[in-house]
Amino acid sequence: MSFSSKDNYDKTKKDSGWLPRRDAKQQDYDKVGFMSGLEVHQQLLTKEKMFCHCPAGIYNHSDDYDAEIIRHMRPTLSELGEYDGTALMEFRTRKEITYRIKNETACTYEVDDTPPFPLNREALGISIEISLLSKLNVVGEVHITRKQYLDGSIPTGFQRTAIIGVEGELELPNKKIRLIQLSIEEDSCREISDIGHKRVYKTDRLGMPLIETVTYPDFVNPDEVKEGCDYIRFLNRSTGKVRTGIGAGRQDVNVSCRGGSRVEIKGVAHTKWIPELTHNEVFRQWSLLRMKDYLIEKGAEVNKWKISHFDISDYSAFNSELLINAKKNDFKIIAVNLPAFEGSFSWFTQPGKMFANEITDRLKVIACIEKPNMLHSEELNNSMNEGDLDFIKKSLKSNDGDAQIVFWGPEADVKTALETIEERCIMALEGIPEETRKSLTDGTTIFERVLPGADRMYPDTDTAPIPLEDDYIKSLESGLPEDIIDRYRKLKDWNVPEDVYTYLFSKDLFPLMEEIITKTEITPSYLGTFLGHRLKFAEGQFKSNEEFNYRVILRLFEFLKSKGLDFKLAEKMLPFLMEHPMMEFDSIIASLKHKRKSKEDLVARIPILKEKFANGKTEISEADRRNWIMGQLRNSAIGNISLHELSKEI
Amino acid sequence: MDNDIFQGYKGDALEILKKYQVRVWGTTKVETTRGSFEGTVLPRAENDDDKHIVVKIITGYNIGIDTRTITSMVETGYKKANYKIPEKQFPFTPGLPSVKLFGTGGTIASRLDYRTGAVIPAFSPGELYGAVPELADICNLDTEKIFAVFSENMGPKQYMALAKAIGKEIEKGIDGIVIGHGTDTLHHTGAALTFMCQNLPVPVVLVGSQRSSDRPSSDAALNLMHAMKAAGQSDIAEVQICMFGPTSDEYGLLHKGTRVRKMHSSYRSTFRTIGDTPLARINRDEILPIKKNYNKRRNDKDVKILPFFHDKVTMLYYYPGMAPDTLDALVDAGYKGIIFVGTGLGHVNKELYPAIERAHAKGVHMYMTLQTLWGYVHMFVYDTGRDMMAKGIIPAGNMLPEVAWVKLSWVLGQTEEPEEVKRMMLTPINDEITNREPYNGYLVYQGGVPEVEAFIKDVHK
Question: What is the C-alpha to C-alpha distance for residues A455 and A164, in angstroms, rounded to an integer?
Answer without folding.
Answer: 20
